[in-house]
């Protein structure tokens, strides 16, 4: 029985998860593949860090040893960031190794060059874990939706943001309190900027766009907004209307990309996605609307995506590698239909005049306020007036009644 | 360029959808496969039925002509029912054709013999469309979750039942009114028994069980209950508690199967699955909980599953055919943990004594009633007393708080 040698770069949250999954499921993996598997080396940064239980593979702190000691067949990158991950992946591909990565920052920025290099070298570069953690979203898109054209994708792709918004709503705590808890629970990084500012979700959207349409939107044209400014009262006002605030990625086949907080109603497939879960709602021409929901992070879930990617290297060969499905970029007039918004502001600033201006352009459907707060929210359907409005927050609302779902355009 | 000949059996809802999808997407399909495709014949029952627009393939009313005129490479069965579908599929497999089917009744009952025959003949028998319509649930389980062990599956697999329950809740109409609308909209069959009595969902669960675990539960041991007895007040009482009634399939790795109405809370991934949508929540050991949601029926969505199955025949060869993933049946002591129930009855029959009996075994968490109705509902946590209770309905409740989700056992 031949042997597959695997090198693991990084032994943090994800690396440790991969290590234990490969070890724990070794017999089943070997049975599925009809080959033995062995960890030929693990790369870490700090050799002085105390680690227990990593007896089954040599630990190295120099990358040279990873490729040099015993040429691996597969390299799994779980370091994160641009450098040295980019160099290590490049060198691994050049050495003829398949590479598996969970690194959305890197793939968003340099995926194209790495994919090209892999193709040149006749090896595969796969990265299911980089988008949506354990959810098999990339492989579903490429392997199970071959003839379906993806019209748009709507996703909750940052577990930390989703946890914070869920937690504020269910417990009534403030943004800083929810963020602190997210950090305590290990969901948010010590520096949570990428999560909170929407950058992590943006990188994942860029990976998705390249994966589905073969190209990315222009980085500077995407609208990217995080949840840093969301106030508890806004969430509570929305809840009175049966709406929940979600941090969404909205990408469509005209390559329009928005990453921002959006309100969704209780019929919307992303309404019930709570806590650290991620979800992707994929709208296609044939199937209609398919939603995948699951854990967007965590050692075991992410390891699941990586180990499944590993199996796919040996089970399907490269059948899907060079054959993206049929989705293509559509040129579309940017005609926006009237949509619905929740407008939130201080009661004292929202005059009858403001409401009259709004009624000229559309309809104020409902007004809600909180008993002890000075804020008021207006549910409004129509185009927003171009003149400045005295509201502190304006959130788009996605109503998912059947008719709207069919006509939907990006907000 | 070589050619793939496709025969289509049946030209009803699904058959027509397949016909138009194959025609509409012919260029893309041919490009993906690198082969031409052609419809060699379509089987119908009633040659006198007026049909327009089926110019691209000969219509036959005798099956002999389908295999005899021009040997097809692939036969798509969209007739439904046991006979003559079983005979036609058998004869197609014997003739060396790959077969694609959407027929859950048949596959639940005779899938094993057809799978065996396909294997003997070196062809494939695939049936994604038989479970969950357009949702790629079977292929996700077998192709994307290879090393994940499926611990349990929870699904909304009958679109008609889900539509009826959703519609009663949102409009306040009665069961017969909702059923009539479902029939008008073409969701329910003229004879809706299989949908309403839970049999359609039961067949799909049987297909799923065989697919995941390689075996089916004993048919007579499964608990199968439909939605025929659900009253509007019950749905309204549940809603007061933030719960929604869903007709669920619950299958686990000890081969315990229940098909019945269950209440779920707003954090539960199936809570937001409304209308004719289907959804499957798959709990695995590594990934955790993955939920797929999408259209469970309809011409285009079902055609999507069939055409994707068709592509898979030629793109992955038979790699997954003989290699089910690692999920296995677990022997488990049937120790049930205390769960939560909604007990509904006539106010006048629920005495203080009844409540005392309940409190001995668990806790009455909440009591709700409707202003103008004589019914009352008790939310109860604990084992149900064995002595008969004066309630007209008892619904299990699935609360999806993180801790419960981890410990969950079948209700
Ligand atoms: N955490 C998740 O749930 C999750 C989910 C999906 C994707 N991801 C992605 O997975 C990747 C890893 O994330 P993580 O959470 O596992 O990170 P982490 O816990 O910070 O672990 C990083 C690992 O990489 C090693 N490392 C860092 N710099 C290195 C260098 N210059 N040379 C060699 N080794 C180096 C570290 O070594 P030491 O142990 O010596 O410090 C550590 O073992 C990232 O791309 C992340 O975006 C993470
Ligand atoms: N409808 C859905 O959304 C859906 C979704 C998933 C799976 N399915 C499954 O797909 C299958 C087909 O469903 P459907 O809704 O398309 O059914 P349908 O609309 O009733 O169509 C059945 C077709 O089969 C033909 N047929 C019936 N008996 C026949 C016989 N003895 N010989 C030859 N042809 C015969 C009929 O011919 P005539 O046209 O001459 O009457 C008709 O064209 C069923 O197994 C169903 O469970 C349906």
From TrEMBL, chains A, B:
<feature type="domain" description="Aspartate/homoserine dehydrogenase NAD-binding">
    <location>
        <begin position="10"/>
        <end position="128"/>
    </location>
</feature>
<comment type="similarity">
    <text>Belongs to the homoserine dehydrogenase family.</text>
</comment>
<dbReference type="InterPro" id="IPR036291">
    <property type="entry name" value="NAD(P)-bd_dom_sf"/>
</dbReference>
<dbReference type="GO" id="GO:0009088">
    <property type="term" value="P:threonine biosynthetic process"/>
</dbReference>
<dbReference type="InterPro" id="IPR005106">
    <property type="entry name" value="Asp/hSer_DH_NAD-bd"/>
</dbReference>
<dbReference type="Pfam" id="PF03447">
    <property type="entry name" value="NAD_binding_3"/>
</dbReference>
<dbReference type="InterPro" id="IPR019811">
    <property type="entry name" value="HDH_CS"/>
</dbReference>
<dbReference type="GO" id="GO:0050661">
    <property type="term" value="F:NADP binding"/>
</dbReference>
<dbReference type="Pfam" id="PF00742">
    <property type="entry name" value="Homoserine_dh"/>
</dbReference>
<dbReference type="GO" id="GO:0004412">
    <property type="term" value="F:homoserine dehydrogenase activity"/>
</dbReference>
<dbReference type="GO" id="GO:0009086">
    <property type="term" value="P:methionine biosynthetic process"/>
</dbReference>
<keyword id="KW-0028">Amino-acid biosynthesis</keyword>
<keyword id="KW-0560">Oxidoreductase</keyword>
<keyword id="KW-0521">NADP</keyword>
<comment type="pathway">
    <text>Amino-acid biosynthesis; L-threonine biosynthesis; L-threonine from L-aspartate: step 3/5.</text>
</comment>
<keyword id="KW-0915">Sodium</keyword>
<protein>
    <recommendedName>
        <fullName>Homoserine dehydrogenase</fullName>
        <ecNumber>1.1.1.3</ecNumber>
    </recommendedName>
</protein>
<comment type="pathway">
    <text>Amino-acid biosynthesis; L-methionine biosynthesis via de novo pathway; L-homoserine from L-aspartate: step 3/3.</text>
</comment>
<keyword id="KW-0791">Threonine biosynthesis</keyword>
<dbReference type="InterPro" id="IPR001342">
    <property type="entry name" value="HDH_cat"/>
</dbReference>
<keyword id="KW-0486">Methionine biosynthesis</keyword>
<feature type="domain" description="Homoserine dehydrogenase catalytic">
    <location>
        <begin position="136"/>
        <end position="311"/>
    </location>
</feature>
């Amino acid at each position: 029985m031949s042997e597959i040698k695997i090198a693991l770069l990084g032994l943090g949250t994800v690396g440790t998860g991969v290590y234990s999954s490969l070890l724990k499921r070794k017999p089943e993996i070997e049975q599925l593949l009809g080959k033995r598997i062995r960890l030929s080396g693990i790369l870490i940064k700090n050799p002085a860090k105390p680690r227990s239980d990593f007896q089954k593979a040599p630990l190295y702190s120099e990358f040279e040893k990873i490729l040099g000691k015993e040429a691996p067949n597969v390299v799994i990158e779980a370091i994160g960031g641009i450098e040295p991950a980019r160099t290590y992946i490049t060198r691994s591909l050049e050495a003829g190794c398949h590479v598996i990565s969970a690194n959305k920052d890197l793939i968003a920025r340099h995926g194209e060059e790495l994919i090209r290099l892999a193709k040149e070298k006749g090896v595969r570069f796969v990265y299911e874990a980089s988008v949506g953690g354990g959810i098999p979203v990339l492989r579903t898109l490429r392997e199970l939706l071959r003839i379906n054209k993806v019209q748009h994708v709507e996703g909750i792709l940052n577990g930390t943001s989703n946890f914070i918004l869920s937690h504020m709503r269910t417990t009534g705590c403030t943004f800083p309190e929810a963020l602190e808890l997210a950090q305590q629970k290990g969901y948010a990084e010590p520096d949570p900027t990428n999560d909170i500012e929407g950058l992590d979700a943006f990188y994942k959207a860029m990976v998705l766009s390249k994966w589905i349409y073969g190209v990315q939107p222009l980085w500077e044209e995407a609208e990217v907004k995080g949840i840093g400014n969301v106030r508890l009262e806004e969430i509570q006002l929305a809840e009175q209307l049966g709406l929940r605030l979600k941090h969404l990625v909205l990408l469509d086949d005209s390559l329009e990309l928005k990453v921002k907080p959006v309100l969704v109603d209780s019929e919307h497939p992303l309404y019930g996605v709570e806590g650290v879960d991620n979800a992707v709602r994929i709208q296609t021409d044939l199937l209609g609307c398919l939603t995948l929901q699951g854990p967007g992070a965590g050692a075991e879930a992410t390891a699941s995506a990586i180990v499944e990617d590993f199996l796919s290297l040996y089970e399907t060969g490269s059948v899907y590698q060079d054959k993206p499905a049929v989705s293509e970029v559509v040129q579309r007039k940017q005609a926006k239909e009237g949509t619905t918004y929740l407008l939130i502001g201080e009661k004292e600033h929202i005059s009858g005049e403001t409401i009259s201006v709004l009624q000229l352009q559309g309809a104020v459907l409902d007004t809600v306020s909180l008993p002890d707060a000075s804020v008021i929210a207006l549910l409004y359907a129509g185009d927003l007036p171009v003149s400045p409005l005295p509201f502190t927050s304006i959130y788009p609302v996605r109503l998912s009644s059947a008719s709207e779902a069919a006509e939907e355009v990006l907000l």
